[in-house]
Design goal:
By secondary structure, the protein is an all-alpha fold. The protein is built from nine helices and no strands.
Length: 211
């Protein structure tokens, strides 16, 4: 029970921090990560907040799991709803950075927070995010996960840019750093399931007594 509670707390802390990371990067105005270029472009073109578009696109991506036979977990469903909610909350709370130094501070903090948050919610082991599941589901059909991930990211980046989302140095910085950050942080934040003790029937017999 304590292990499950820890996983749940880490999951929701990770989702809250992920929303904070998105809000910091969007507020910096120096370029969003590919998915948030799309979310911002949709917001600018059609109205509604960035957070609402995060929820909408997350739900649509989750529908794509059905033909791919991916199974969502509680973390997946929570990701769909809460990342957008936390993004809008922090966009409302954060002061607008005017000086270039403040904008760069926001950007660097966004990348670091995003890497830590990704390790938290994936490491909780309660379900992949909808976009992560789309990638792994397509890769399971015999495609390289790197090729699939790159194709998806470039597609949403192009669509978001055409809709008016902000592309810039922050987009590049996020792309080249989030992978290594997650690679370093995920093992430290992964909560391993508690090993189940062997039953008497499955335990190996004791070694024979020596004379």
């Amino acid at each position: 029970m304590a292990l499950l509670a820890r996983r749940v707390v880490q999951l929701y802390a990770g989702l809250a921090l992920y929303g904070l990371g998105i809000a910091l990067q969007v507020s910096s105005g120096l370029g969003n990560d590919p998915w948030d270029v799309l979310h911002q472009g949709l917001s600018r073109r059609f109205g509604l907040s960035i957070g609402v578009w995060i929820v909408i696109t997350g739900a649509l991506v989750l529908l794509a799991w059905i033909p791919l036979r991916q199974r969502p977990g509680v973390g997946t469903l929570s990701n769909v709803v809460l990342v957008g909610v936390f993004t809008d909350l922090f966009l409302w709370l954060l002061p607008d950075p005017h000086a270039l130094a403040a904008r760069w501070t926001y950007l660097v903090a966004a990348v670091l927070v995003g890497g830590f948050a990704t390790g938290c919610y994936i490491g909780a082991g309660l379900g992949a995010g909808p976009r992560d599941g789309l990638t792994t589901g397509l890769a399971a059909r015999g495609h390289s996960i790197r090729v699939v991930r790159t194709a998806i990211e470039l597609s949403v980046l192009a669509a978001g840019w055409l809709l008016g989302g902000t592309v810039g140095v922050g987009t590049v910085l996020y792309a080249v750093t989030i992978g290594p950050l997650t690679h370093v942080l995920l093992p430290a934040l992964t909560i391993a399931p508690k090993p189940v003790p062997a039953s008497p029937r499955t335990r190996p017999p004791p070694p024979p007594n020596r004379p």
